[in-house]
């Protein structure tokens, strides 16, 4: 069927092989195990940044490879990453506004 | 839903940007969802540590935390694996491998249901241990945030099950099968990355 | 599994059924317009009741309880049920025509947006039969909490806004995709009509601003009905969170209300000044800048909550910076008029009035961008004056300009210019009589939302003056309604391009055929019809090829009734919510399997 052929041609340009997908899945599992190890360890103030960085790596890998954003139109990247950054900015702003009240951020 | 087609001929043949209308809609919808979960997570962080009475999420003043990290790590792993099977379903659909697509879809659905089972178990256990919506601010923020995530997983299960059912028709998923499964996959993976964030913020980072 | 439903037989495009199942963007635009105008009348009646009560000291027309409901519902009706959907009416009707498309990217989704809007509007309005919301349109906790408002009113508010938000989200996603992907050949982004640009910008704002409100509404719903304490400080919550989530949405919302009007004015002024818009790129980028900066100013609604010096300074500065792109737009409109050969049609008068009154409202806006001054203005009639100068003097004036301008395109008929000018002058004078004195009242200390005031406070004169002004506005609306019905009885005489305008919608017949254009136009310049006229380019001949249009569908209204049931269930019995979910799933299946060829 010509449609199916077309579709497979397109996806072969932008997609990974089954093996590569499985490798990525394994890598994500390993990162999750590292995260767990970190959360049970005693790393003090370095712990939170490390955990956030690790989950950010997982986030980016899933979006870039499983969701094909790396191989797809740049328009999708702009729409999604733009929205994500806005959400992050609002989250940071809101949390700082409230933590300034109950914690010691120098906003007063 | 996104797999509903627009009224016109195959949309990607004549759009200005060369992108498919439906996929563009799905991506921007997921952008909107970023703001939705962003607001829920912000609420959780704002009230983190503000509970007046227990149970508390993590170990607190000699009292044991209510979160069961090993159990939730398992369910996190389940959801992560569902993303792998999802991507295999997309691969199968795009390469015309019907059997691979159907089996992977089925696996994804079952893993999704397993995740929901874990969540139900967790909610019920918390209930038995005296943590409800009204108990303290942790209960409120936790149940509403993870509850809405669970709802998204549930919607995803219905979405994928519909595709799986439809794939058994004589015409299958039609000439655009790869496209439909890929769009559903975008939604599914997004629900997974939301959990990646929630897992870190709620479970891994202590008070 | 749902059986494959056959394509609905294509009816002769008449009768109620053809409207219920329509997926034609023009008809959906008309439905939006008529529904929203009806709500505008209803919101106006509420306003007149409010003004009647306040005309004299110690008024006794309505009691305090009813008064609270009226000012709350007046704002909700005007913002969510009238002005936003009137903007939607224009962008539904016009966007595909202006970009040379035959419909929007998702015609059935478009119909769904309308029916969900209708459902949400009816739910919210029906609250008058039980308890109407009465805690103001921004519905602050703890007043809106179970302790102080235990009746159903606030739940109606929550369910109504969640439903309306769903409708707006779907419409905004649809129009974003339509504008990005469905433009005619040659129509680059920097050749888009400014109105389409503004539609794109508000679509972005809606998609991104609605979720925080949704989350706030869900939390309020849970606090009221499911025992949570998000907004209860004794239990570790914080009422200020509601204010933040509301205004993270609320400030972009004011641009969602005003930008369509700015787009309309940017289309009307060049046509009746007979010269291209002055500084097109500046107008577009100013619109983008306003939308972008609009995300970083929301706390200017909360200066009196004690945020601390640094946040106050940041939010005040950002707010004042927004005056710059806004000023750029105003100067570009004036630059468009300068040296033009101006025709003072009714549409043009409304557009010019928009510039004047919107500027007044903008200036008072910059005033309370300053925290110390805001502390004085807060909750006084000065703020009421400001908001009505931008929303009535701005948005509503712009919308009427658009109605007079595009009426021939939408109906094939002209509105009477004589009655139109009467309408304009009555409305312009009435609105200034009503709202300008509110500046004085506010500075004299009159708080907003009081249901009556004492004799000795000396507020009587300007209140009476404002009430008379509001009746003048009411009369102007009656003149418009008469004008509308009179012209609907005239024959369709409008040519394709009666005003000698430059944008693509004027290249097709008035009203346009179902498929919009016989031949998809090719765009060669920013003002395509003027370019073609000046270069002697003839419109292409129709080739007579079959033009495929999407068939009508009843799934949109079916699914919308499911969405409405979800909400009604929350208000009454949860079984209805479950039924709603079933209806939605069934509709989605039918929808997905419905043939569209
Ligand atoms: Cu504002």
Strand content bin of chain C: under 5%
Described by strand count, sense and barrel closure, the largest sheet of chain A is: none
Radius of gyration of chain A: 20 Å
The averaged pLDDT of chain A comes out at: 83
Q: What is the CATH topology descriptor of the largest domain in chain C?
A: Cytochrome C Oxidase, Chain A
Any descriptors?
heterotrimer, B: 207 residues, mainly alpha, Four Helix Bundle (Hemerythrin (Met), subunit A), 5 helices, 69% helix, 0% strand, elongated, C: 597 residues, Cytochrome C Oxidase, Chain A, 17 helices, globular
Structure description:
The complex is a heterotrimer of chains A (108), B (207) and C (597). By secondary structure, chain A is an all-alpha fold. Chain A contains four helices and no strands. Helices cover 78% and strands 0% of the residues of chain A. The relative contact order of chain A is 0.07. The model of chain A is unreliable at 1-13 and 104-108 (pLDDT under 50). Chain B has one domain (23-47, 72-204): Four Helix Bundle (Hemerythrin (Met), subunit A) (Up-down Bundle), CATH 1.20.120.80. Chain B starts with 20 loop residues before the first helix and ends with a helix. By secondary structure, chain B is mainly alpha-helical. Chain B has five helices and no strands. Chain C folds into two domains: 16-553, Cytochrome C Oxidase, Chain A; 554-597. Mean pLDDT of chain C is 94; it is low at 1-6. The chains are: A mainly alpha (108), B mainly alpha (207), C mainly alpha (597). Chains in contact: A-B, A-C, B-C. The interface between A and B is large, with 52 and 55 residues. Residues 251, 254, 297, 300-301 of chain C line the site of copper (II) ion.
